[in-house]
């Protein structure tokens, strides 16, 4: 391990960040990662242990996996949910634990749309049949994601109004559960992303066709959630900056959307990519999505950005912040491999490790 020189500037990764009334103790974020381990959308001891370990490891912000706003909005039968009050208290045990150990926690509110009712990765592929707990799915139109996926029912205007209301109701439950931040999932080919992309949205009404029409549902959801979510707490939106496919959603449209979201009370754009179509052709490599966040930050400086995607090392994370490419850095797999990643990163970068008292004797 290389020790930074004594006159080295303090690492930005371990500088605080104020988001409305919150202050994150550092810029490391646990990215949402589906665990497929709930029953009827209810969190259990696995989720408490899984998410709690990241608080003990010093993360500035922990974001839950995609948490469905309705039963039919789940990706799999084992997804977390916030569509009923009985799901509140188990999540509250988690938020209480995270707060007691010095971190903040956000909830990712999601609806899978045409990618719903599918198997957990290690249980199978494609659509879950009704006899095994599957259900009918909805989408912008009747086109399915893949031949092994369910065929969606095109959403009526009543369906659209219900989905918007479901997002708002889930946000209100998240407040009661004690979450510090909310993130609206509009990426990775799920429902809101499906409406954004011309490759998944062939509607001819006011929710399809033009850019203004395709973003309409997302804006309605953002407004509904922002109204339900306390004004003193931050709101994130996760987007796929590009579909990586000809004729799809792209970075230019993402920047245009970002310039509108800042007027809707959104505080942070979580910039990912892909997931909309099997025709995607992704050029994968270290930091491959960072340029998307960087462009949004450069062209819409009023909106904070979060970079994510194959960010592995403390040096990479610090470089993103030092270069001005993003304001926050989200990691997924590195946290699964090492829940104490922030403590190791702090040591590497010459900062004081964020240690709970119980772990101080480890001598970081």
Blueprint (SSEs and pairs):
Elements: E1 17-19, E2 22-24, E3 28-30, H1 45-56, E4 61-68, E5 80-81, H2 88-100, E6 104-110, E7 138-139, E8 153-154, H3 157-177, E9 181-186, H4 191-196, H5 211-214, H6 216-228, E10 235-240, H7 251-261, E11 268-272, H8 290-299, E12 304-308, H9 314-322, E13 328-331, H10 333-337, H11 341-349
Parallel strand pairs: 3-4, 3-13, 4-5, 4-6, 6-9, 7-8, 9-10, 10-11, 11-12, 12-13
Antiparallel strand pairs: 1-2
Pfam families: Oxidored_FMN
GO molecular function: FMN binding; NADP binding; NADPH dehydrogenase activity
Domain NADH:flavin oxidoreductase/NADH oxidase N-terminal: 13-348
Please, could you describe this protein's structure?
By secondary structure, the chain is α/β, with parallel strands linked by helices. It has a single domain, classed as TIM Barrel, CATH 3.20.20. The chain is 31% helix and 15% strand. The protein contains 11 helices and 13 strands. An 8-stranded parallel β-barrel has the order 3-4-6-9-10-11-12-13, surrounded by 6 helices. Helix 8 links the parallel strand 11 and strand 12. Helix 1 packs parallel to helix 2, helix 2 packs across helix 3 and helix 7 packs across helix 8. It is globular, with a radius of gyration of 20 Å. Its cofactor is FMN. This is NADH:flavin oxidoreductase/NADH oxidase.
In a nutshell, what does this entry contain?
The chain is of the alpha/beta class and 364 residues long. The chain has helices at residues 45-56, 88-100, 157-177, 191-196, 211-214, 216-228, 251-261, 290-299, 314-322, 333-337, 341-349, and strands at residues 17-19, 22-24, 28-30, 61-68, 80-81, 104-110, 138-139, 153-154, 181-186, 235-240, 268-272, 304-308, 328-331.
